[in-house]
Every structure is written in C-alpha cells, then in structure tokens.
Amino acid sequence: MPHSEHFSKQYDSDLEDVRSRVLQMGGVVEAQILAAIECFSSGDTERMTEVTDTELRVNAYEVDIDDLCVHIVARRQPAARDLRLIMGVSKAVTDLERMGDEAEKITRMARLIHERKGPQIPLQAEVRRSGDLAVAQLRHALDAMARLDPDEAERIISEDALIDTEFRGILRQLITFMMEDPRTISTALEIIWVAKAIERIGDHAKNIAEQVIYIVRGTDVRHTGKERRHGVADEEH
Amino acid sequence: MAEPKPALDTLPLKARASALDFYYGDFQALKKIDMPIYEKRVTALIGPSGCGKSTFLRCFNRMHDLYPGNRYVGEISLHPDNVNLLDKSVDPIEVRMRLSMVFQKPNPFPKTIFENVAYGLRVRGVNRRAVLEEKVEEALRAAALWNEVKDRLQDMAFNLSGGQQQRLCIARALATEPEILLFDEPTSALDPIATASIEELITELKQRVTILIVTHNMQQAARVSDFTAYMYIGELVEFGWTDDIFIKPKNPQTEAYITGRFG
Amino acid sequence: MARMARKDIGEIRGIIARAKRLDVIFGVVGVLALGLGLLTFATLFVDMALDGYSRLTPDFFTEFPSRHAERAGILSAWVGTTLVMLVTACVAVPLSVAAGIYLEEYAPRNWITDIIEINIANLAGVPSIIYGLLALGLFVYEFNLGQSILTAGLTLALLILPVVIVATREAIRSIPSHIREGAYALGATKWQVVQHHILPYSMGGIMTGVIIGMARAIGETAPIITIGALTFIAFLPASPVTGTFPFLSFEWLQSPFTVMPIQIFNWTSRPDPNFHANAAAAGFVLVLMTLIMNGLAIWLRYRIRRNIKW
What pLDDT digit, counting tens, does each position of A141-195 carry? Predict the structure, then answer.
C-alpha cells in the first residue's frame, strides 16, 4: 500500500518497524502453536517447556509493539491509512498474544493427558488436522498483513467455518467415547479444551484478517455478514 | 464516530459556492469551486500554501473588493434568502455586515477593549450607551473573555496577551451577530495554550454561528471541524465529514497531504 | 560541513575577531561623522549666542527695529513670523492631509495617479525661490492679495505642501493593512475607516511632518523677499482679537509684514558691527524657535504613539 513516502523518513521507518515486528511476532506465535500441537501428539515434555518459554517472548513482543504504536500516535498524530495501520496492528497484536495463551493451554492439557495412566482416546489425527488448519489460517493472515492483501483476508474469513466444522466433529466423537467408557471422561474433557483452543486460534486469525481489511479499505467488517465486507462503507453516509 | 452522522442532504445549508472562479488580475486563483457550508457547523479549509484556501475564505466577505484587479465568476449563495454574495448589485459593505472575519494576526484597533468590541455596532449606527454595554458584555462572554477583562474595559486592547487579543477580535466579530464567522488561520500567531483556548472557543461557538476556518494545521482541522475541505492549486480536491477525511479519504491526493507524504 | 567541523577552533576565533574589528571600525567612523555634524552646529549656535548675548534682553523682543542698533528689537519680525506660520499651518495641514489620504486610500491605481505622485516628489525638490516667483505672479498680481501676511502664508504653505503630503502618506502607510482590513471586515465604509482609524492612528506622523515642514518654512527667506516683504517695519498688524462683536478680525491678513530671517538678513548687511550683534541675537532666537518646534514634534509623536501599538 504505501507507495509514496512521508516527508519524514523517521515516520516511514517507525511505521515499517511496527509492521515488521508484528510479522516477527506472528512467526514466533506460529512456531509456538506448532510446537504445542506436537506436544499434544507426542507428549514430549521438553517441547512443553519450550512453548512456555516462548510465551514470555510473545508477551514481550506485545508490550513492545503497543509501546511503539503509542509513541507514533503521540508524536505523529497519524491520519488516514497510517492511523488505520496503527489501530489495526495494535488489535492484531492482542490477537496474536491470545493465540500464544491458547498454545500454552494446549501444552498444559497435553501434559495432563500424557501423565494420566488409563484408556487413551485415539483422536490425535483429527485434532492435528484441525490444528494444522488453524496454523495455516494464521500463516495466511500474516501473509495478508505483510502484503496488505484484502482479498487474501476475505478468503481467510470465509474459511474460518472449516475449523468450526472440524471442532464440532471432534466434539461429537468425544461424546461417543465418553458414553462407551466413562473412564475416558477426564481425558475427553481435556481434549475438548485443546480442540476449543485450536478453534479460538482460528478465530483470532480471522480477526487479524479483518484488521487487514480495515487497514486497506477503511471498512470495519467485524460482526458483519459477508456482503458488508466488500468495501461498501462509502455508502454508509 | 461517536455519534451517527446525519445524511448530508438533511442538513440545513447556510451557504454554497457554485462554479466559483477567482482571478487576481490574469492569474486564476480559484477554479470551479463547488462547496456547501452547513449551518451551525465548523467547516475547515486545508491545503498547502498557495492552494487558494485563504483566497476562497476572503471571497465570502468580499475582502478582495478592497484591492483593484480582482474578479469573481460564479456565485456564493447565502441561505436561507439565497442571495448571491458576489453579485455586482450586492454592496460588499452589506455582505461584511452579515459575515464577520477573524484574522491571522490578532488585530485589535489601538483603542480601548470596550471600543474594539463596540466598533461593529458603532459602524451600524448604534450609539446608545446602554445598548452598547449590553452587547459588548454579551460578545465578551461568548468569546470567553468577559471574566478576564470586565474590570478593565477602558484599558487599551494592546495591553492584552496575544491569545486574549485574538479572543477580543472574536468578540468584536461576534458583537454584530454575524451569520457566518470566517477565521483566517486564527492561531498561527499564537502559542499552544492560547491556540487550545481558541480551538475550544470555536467548538463552543458553533452552537450559535456557522463557522468557516482556514488552517495550516491539519490537526487543528481534525480537532475543531465537522467538515473538511482539501484544496490544491485553486481546486477543491475533496470535501466531506472531517472523520472521513482523516480516517479514509477517497482521494489519494488528500491522503498524501494529510498523512504528510509526497503528493 | 565536515570540513567546518574539523577546522581548528583558533582559526574560527581569528575569523570572529577579524569580523568584529570591522564592527569597531565602523562604530568609530559613525561617531566621528555624527560628531562632525553636531560640533559644527554647536559651534555656530554657541558663537551666535556669545555674539548676541548682550542684546538678548526683554526689550529686544518688545522693540521695533531702529536706526540705532542698541535700541532695535525684533517685535515686528517675530510677530510677523508667528502670523505667517499660523496662515501656513492653517492652509497646509488640511490641504496636504486631504491630498495624502486621497492618494493613499481613494486614488485608483492608474497613470494619472502615477503622474501626480511623481510631481509631488518633484515639487519637494523645486528651489524655494521658484515658489516665490510663482506667488508673486499668482497671489500678488493675479489674485491681488498684496504683499501681505496672507500671501506669505500661502506661499510657504505651497512650499511645505509636498513635504507634509509625503509625511502624511508615510504615516498612513505605516498603519498595518490588517488593522485596515479589520475595520473594513466589520462593515465600515471608506470614510468611516479614514475617520475612525486612518486619521487618528496617523496623526502623530502627520503632526511630525507638519512641524518639520514649518521648521523649514520658518527659515525661508528667498520666497518671502521675492513677494516683497518689507525689511524695515515699525508697526504691528491689526490685532486678530477685537473688543467688539464678532471679536475676531482678519484684517491682519492683508497687513504688510516682515519675518525673522529677513530681519537678520537686513541687519547683517549693515556696516555697523553693533547691528551684527543684533543679527546674532535674532539668529539665536530663530534657531531656538526651530529647536522648540522640533522638540514639540518629538513630544507629540511620543504622546500619540504611546496609545498606538499593533
């Protein structure tokens, strides 16, 4: 988007800095989620501590980027697309940080599941597929943010439904396991937490995509149907 | 975005420039300006130096008539009576009696505070002391200056601070109950505190009068105005709600200007 | 920039010192130039005062001229000068102020105005004797005003007209345009702007111009001689104030007269050195009158400007 440059070179580099840090943070979160899902499949405790450590880095990123945004607002009074970039980025950062929290939740549940002796529930593959879908959504959202591509963002928003479907599928299967053997209930509940966390990660990816549309088009597409997403805000007034 | 914005065609119109051209001799300073001025709203004119925003403002009270060689084409209609302010048959003095102006540099007359505010009324033939006193007090109150000067109305106006002088000029302009108040970069000679007080005043004044303000300071336009017009080399590039102009301008030129980019 | 930074601080100090030396040199030259002018004047003034000191008695001011140097006074001369100046002021002030205001505020910008402006500038440079010739032809012979106080006053008024017009215009121009625009923006007409703003705010400058013009006129000799002022006069013009209704008389306007510079000229051209003392005393009085007028100009300007600021 920013083809032309500001008169202030410092302003340009400040904005660029914010954007690249968000993308870096996104990369860290993506790796963290992948690690968390890996933990869930393998029960590797070393990777579990790795996820928890990453969480600290993610939090630091969030504080850091928000601080940058506040500084830009205070010193430059950004307007128009610059203003939207700062607002959008600031919200996307919150989403990323929440994703990190969800990843940590997944590892916590994975630890409980793997430490428990007793009947296992063979749903690793389904949860993994759903997790991969969520990570893909996040990766696409970060791509859309990097390229400021609203069409890609729209695709992400519509594909969120897939993850929701996966989540409902896992839920149904878990119910059958629990009815067959009540001893699996504890484990099943923990898997529900994991699946729910994955579903939330998908939602956050969708939120980031929505911010991309806001940054580029100036249209707020949150809490709206598909038809409102196509840059129709101009007719609002 | 705090309150929903009404549709433009439902807003009462105070004035409208239609196909307005303006020439300084052979030089065309304004080109086909079409722009509405909505009643009891603040409309800000922004744009780089030499874009014609001050020239446009000074068409409204026919200040250009003071200097030879200036020429208007097109019209500025004043509502509700729909009179064309620029028409040859309309006396510029009549226009200036209906619209007031506040200038870039505070320009109180070297007279007392009282006489400064009363001057517009005196020109209109008001000389009864009681009437003058009442109107002067009202105008000074409206300009948020009364409490500071009520005990020294007979002091010379130039003893006031810069910000007070500018508020005095606003009181002077208000005393004659103008239909539109024109501000020509009213804070460019003031410090930030005085600027803030003038901006606050402008926001209050729109309860009683339609305001048109030229400003070099984009943030000022963003802070005080309901509508913003972006002008560039004599043309009106974009006009709209200030929120829209500053959050999602439609024209890339406007966007480049307000975000401080190379246009 | 980089080369600047690397420059040795001593070298920079050298440059500053050289530049400051020029400052000092000019300051000294300026003081010398000023001192030369002031000293010349002071010498003349003191010399005159010393030469005429013995004659500066009250009687000197109340006696008519006389063949006997020690009994001669300047009564008719200073009264004549005062009355001529009165006429000059009464004629020159309204004419030149009106002309100045017209040219600044009303005149359209065209070639006629340009020609008028060029001519005013030229008039200021015309030798005063030419004014005398003009007055002789016009006032004395054409209008039959005689060799009177009125003629002299009108002549000197003409002489200082360009000076006062220029001063008026300068005073008006010094009023910032935003003050003028402020008045117009409130709906004032041209005349209201002139009456309420232009005139009051430029009054200090105008008065200064008038007084400086008068100070020039008071010393003029050539045009007054040309129109035929008397050099020896032993009576006063009729009093302007009378005992009977309407208590004012303008008879004095037609009266013959003399003025200070003519009296001085007359005395200096006599062989008797006692008259030279008289001339020095009268010269001292004349310079004093000029100084007082200039002082008045400064005081007036200060008084009026104190209330005007923008």
Answer: 999 999 999 999 999 999 999 999 999 999 999 999 999 998 899 999 999 999 9
Please choose, from the candidates C226, C301, C268, C238, the residue with its C-alpha nearest in 3D space to the C-alpha of residue C72: C268
What is the torsional sign of CA C192, C193, C194, C196?
A: positive
What is the CA angle A79-A85-A86, rounded to 5?
80
Neighbors of chain C by Cβ distance (3+ pairs < 8 Å): B
Structure tokens at B226: 């309901």
Q: Which of C291, C272, C209, C309 is nearest to C44 (CA)?
A: C291
Nearest-CA neighbor of B253 among B84, B74, B48, B32?
Answer: B48
Which candidate, B11, B72, B61, places its Cα nearest to that of B39? B11
Q: Are B35 and B236 in contact (CB under 8 A)?
A: yes
Instruction: State how far residue A139 is from chain B, nearest Cα, in angstroms.
Output: 28
Can you tell me the distance from the alpha carbon of A68 to that of A82, in angstroms, rounded to the nearest whole number? 13
All residues at 6 or more sequence positions from C53 whose CB lies less than 8 Å from its CB, including other chains: C281
Q: If you count residue pairs, one on A and one on B, with CB atoms under 8 Å apart, how many are there?
A: 51
The reply to whether the predicted model has a pTM over 0.90 is no
Contact indicator for C232, C266 with CB cutoff of 8 Å: yes
**What's the CA gap between A196 and A191, in Å, rounded?**
8
Query: B253 vs chain C: nearest CA distance in angstroms?
Result: 33
Name which CATH class applies to A9-231. Answer: mainly alpha
Q: What does the angle CA B246 – CA B250 – CA B255 come to, to the nearest 5 degrees?
A: 50
